[in-house]
Amino acid sequence: MNSIFYQGNQVISGDFKGERTTSDGSVILLEKIERKTRCILRYCNRLFDRRKQCLVKYSMYTLLKYRVYTVLLGYEDCNDVEHLKDDPALGQIFGGRLPSQPTLSRFENSVGRSEIWSLSEQMIEEYITTLKDREEVIIDVDSTDDKTHGSQEFSLFNGFYDHTIYNQLFFHDGQTGQIILPVLRPGNVHTSKWAVNILERMIDKIREVYPQIRIKVRADAGYSSPEVYTMLRKKKVDYCIGIPSNRNLRRKIELTHEEVYNDYYLKGEKHIEMTDFDYKASSWCSSEKVVAKIESTGKGLDTRFVVTNLEGTAKDIYYDFYVKRGDASENRIKEVKNMCFSDRLSDHRFWANYLRLFISSISFNLGLRIRQGIQETDHEKAHNWQVSSIRTYLLKVAATVKITKTRVHYRFSKSFVHQKLLEELLFR
After folding, report:
1. What is the rounded CA–CA span in Å between residue 22 and residue 346?
2. Distances from the Cα of 352 to the Cαs of 107, 153, 273, in angstroms?
3. Same domain, 379 and 287
4. In a domain, 124, yes or no
5. Is residue 420 part of a domain?
6. Which residues contact 333 (CB under 8 A, 6 or more apart)?
């Protein structure tokens, strides 16, 4: 036992002779959820194993599950598993042998277009299973840039973002936040690339199972196009989509804009005016209802336009429906990007990086299942935890692992702050 420093009359000392301890004790919660839902196993069944089976040490299921668990536990890259090779909890969960970084890299690079397509079908099907007893669903469509810093395939310069990027497209459930589908695109594509075709297929698959369910679509101005409106009208889908400002739209609100400008903006006062009108661009097949917001912020004048077929007042449509996509979609993209590391697409092959995006998305949805479990408890302060809070306060907990012939026993600290919450999740 070696001395480290003195604190008053006490010697602070330490050694490395303690019991085998893990900092990821709550991995057993992830394993419990997976054993109950078999969600990761269903994704794994969509992958084709091309390896010689006589030489296989780790199943595809083990490799996929290991990557999903470690991402949710905060290990963002394959290289991080080098720090986990002696972890008693992960070692016990995965049968005593943990895959190495080269093994995981070979796994990521083993997938191709057909597997990605199949994983996409599976993720949509997984989402549809959650729609039982739902009368309506809201599909939020949005994209984000993923800056790249290497020579990844299809990593290209995008003039809007002024950087070399991958362009990620996400479809979220606007009520639960669940990722319905992630899409990886080359860096130089337009924001709306592939969105119409994917959305149409998604709507068809939902209606095959729930033909009477009401579907609403929300998106920002990057997805405003005649093709989108035509498809959504044809499918009898409600929509609320932003539209870029132009001279003709501004002419429609000229009087209201002038009133706000003279009565509030010039005085530095805050004020909002809402109005709606019918509008038809030259490329549109029919006229559309447009909602306009003219806001004096006290520092400037902000004008926004939204195309919609929803009934109701302009204020209700804009504030009670459209702006809620900020939390339901934009914040969830930040969550999967910054907390589940969907921006760590550093493999060279495009399809390998596409798989990484899926791994991050599956991890996010697994974290969402934990959040939904928390919301069923009385621990109200934890109801709105994001993935980072779930990881910090619930998953990253120290535990000793004692293994006997008939039992594997995890012992957590009595001083663990959220022990009652973890106990409810583990033992109910």
Report:
1. 28
2. 9, 10, 49
3. no
4. yes
5. yes
6. 142, 144, 168, 170, 172
CA angle, 69 then 75 then 77, to 5°: 105
- Pairwise CA distance, residues 263 & 273, whole Å: 12
Query: Per the confidence metrics, is the pTM higher than 0.90?
Result: yes
The residue assigned the tokens 């002696």 is: 86
Distance CA 225, CA 241 (A): 10
Name residues of the chain where pLDDT drops below 50: none
Which residues are registered as beta bridge partners of 241?
A: 219, 307
Q: Please say whether the beta carbons of 175 and 138 come within 8 A.
A: yes
Kindly state the tokens that stand for 336: 């999967």
**Range of the structural domain that residue 261 is part of:** 113-338
Measured CA to CA in angstroms, residue 208 lies from 203, 205, 211, 212 at distances of 9, 5, 6, 10
pLDDT tens digits for 99-115?
Answer: 999 999 999 999 999 99
Q: How far apart are CA 143 and CA 357, in angstroms?
A: 13
**Coil, strand or helix: which one is 15?**
coil
Residue 100, exposed/middle/buried by CB under 10 A (0-12, 13-18, 19+)?
middle
Bridge partners (DSSP) listed for residue 182: 170
Residue where the block lists tokens 């639960």: 176
Tokens 């070399």 locate to 164
Residues 192 and 292 in one domain: yes
